[in-house]
């Protein structure tokens, strides 16, 4: 069997009862976390503009399912406050899958058990592919892999046969190969919207495949022209052996910032609380981190992160995030608005933040990864060291290797409820919030329609 056939068979063979109860609880946690962003985004300008653009394509006012998949994914993705799965050479946002699964609820009557089953399938497929087929090392965006997981999960909900789903996976794999350029500095708004376009296309493809349109069965395996050859890798997974344990390695965010910054920001918060220094006393902030963090948010391969004037650049700039955490004691959406980003205090302080790895050489990557203790521990740990040098010569330092929300020290359901409330207290009353909390915690006994009714406010 080919890899697309195996993924299709896996997606169609899983039953709700076969998914461990601990995994179901973890999925509910991540679903509520995604819904917190989904609700908040409905009241923000950029997602509202996306909705306006998509509505303009639907003169009768009824948005088709592919556009809903795009809109719902925009809602979840835009805040950049969602979950992550970290692999040695790549990362992904498994909650990117949720938008298309919710959109499927406009096409079919879907029960909560079926939704959670599809969510487990999608999470497992994307995380496993991220671990074993890390396209980012070849310059492609991790949303390449979303095309397979979103298609598998939504295909299950929409009742595609194994043959139809195999075709859909082949078509999706040929059609969506975004490049990592959107994440490089200076980072644009498209960084947070790529996954929404992938999901729109996948919903469209599922409808086409259901009508018998075929795609390449040997998508990965075709010599020279298959994905194995194109990405210079080899995918050989026995999907029948997946037990969903990989989902327990997904992490959530405490700070509204890129995932690799989380342990640094938590450490800075702890140091600031313990030593109570003022920002004006700081001479320099030295941050030691692992290679992936350095490259993406610390002035490495993804470019200069010291020029910061927009949300998208700010939440991917470790110098900015460190500075604003020192000043504001938190990173939430209010730290990512233009007025805060351009304030003289944070602009001056971010220039004092220096980021480096634990080993001075960064190439060859495999050698650097072995010699640098911070990099060698990743992704099982997210080690960092922060040293704050004050103008009077005093040095304040500490180290961390995890953070609250990392998979080894996860947030609780109550923690995510508080995150929801903090994000949305200006927009949603407590009665509406409690309704959402109850629905998600008991989703196996509810329907997707009930959930959609509860979370759509605009």
From TrEMBL:
Residue ranges occupied by any MmgE/PrpD C-terminal domain in the UniProt entry: 255-444
Family named by the database record: Belongs to the PrpD family.
Chain ranges of the MmgE/PrpD N-terminal domain: 5-233
Protein name: 2-methylcitrate dehydratase
InterPro entries, sorted: MmgE/PrpD_sf (IPR036148), MmgE/PrpD_sf_1 (IPR042183), MmgE/PrpD_sf_2 (IPR042188), MmgE_PrpD (IPR005656), MmgE_PrpD_C (IPR045337), MmgE_PrpD_N (IPR045336)
Pfam family, one: MmgE_PrpD_N
GO MF assignments: lyase activity
């Amino acid at each position: 069997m080919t890899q697309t056939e195996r993924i299709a068979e896996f997606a169609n063979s899983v039953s709700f009862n076969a998914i461990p109860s601990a995994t179901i609880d973890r999925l509910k946690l991540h679903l509520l976390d995604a819904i917190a962003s989904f609700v908040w985004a409905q009241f923000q300008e950029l997602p509202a503009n996306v909705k306006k653009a998509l509505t303009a394509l639907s003169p009768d006012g009824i948005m088709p399912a592919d556009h809903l998949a795009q809109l719902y994914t925009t809602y979840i993705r835009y805040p950049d406050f969602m979950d992550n799965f970290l692999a040695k050479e790549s990362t992904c946002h498994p909650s990117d899958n949720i938008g298309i699964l919710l959109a499927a609820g406009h096409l079919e009557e879907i029960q909560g058990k079926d939704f959670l089953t599809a969510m487990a399938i999608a999470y497992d497929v994307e995380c496993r592919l991220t671990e074993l087929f890390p396209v980012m090392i070849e310059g492609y965006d991790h949303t390449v892999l979303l095309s397979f997981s979103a298609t598998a999960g939504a295909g299950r909900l929409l009742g595609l046969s194994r043959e139809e789903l195999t075709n859909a996976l082949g078509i999706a794999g040929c059609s969506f190969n975004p490049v990592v350029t959107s994440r490089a500095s200076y980072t644009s708004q498209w960084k947070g919207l790529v996954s929404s376009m992938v999901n729109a296309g996948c919903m469209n493809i599922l409808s086409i495949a259901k009508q018998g349109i075929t795609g390449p069965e040997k998508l990965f395996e075709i010599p020279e022209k298959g994905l194995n050859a194109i990405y210079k890798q080899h995918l050989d997974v026995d999907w029948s052996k997946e037990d969903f344990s990989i989902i327990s390695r997904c992490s959530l965010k405490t700070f509204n910032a890129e995932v690799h910054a989380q342990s640094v920001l938590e450490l800075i918060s702890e140091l600031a609380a313990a030593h109570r220094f003022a920002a004006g006393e700081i001479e320099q902030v030295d941050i030691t981190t692992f290679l992936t963090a350095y490259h993406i948010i610390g002035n490495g391969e993804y470019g200069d992160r010291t020029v910061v004037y927009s949300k998208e650049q700010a939440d991917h700039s470790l110098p900015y995030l460190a500075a604003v955490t020192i000043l504001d004691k938190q990173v939430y959406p209010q730290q990512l608005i233009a007025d805060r980003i351009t304030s003289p205090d944070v602009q001056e302080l971010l220039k004092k933040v220096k980021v480096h790895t634990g080993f001075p050489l960064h190439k060859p990557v495999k050698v650097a990864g072995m010699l640098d203790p911070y990099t060698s521990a990743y992704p099982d740990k997210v080690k960092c060291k922060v040293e704050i040098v004050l103008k009077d010569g005093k040095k304040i330092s500490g180290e961390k290797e995890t953070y609250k929300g990392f998979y080894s020290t996860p947030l609780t359901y109550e923690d995510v409820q508080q995150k929801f409330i903090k994000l949305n207290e200006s927009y949603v009353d407590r009665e509406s919030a409690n309704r959402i909390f109850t629905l998600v915690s008991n989703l196996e006994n509810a329907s997707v329609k009930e959930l959609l009714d509860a979370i759509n406010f605009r």
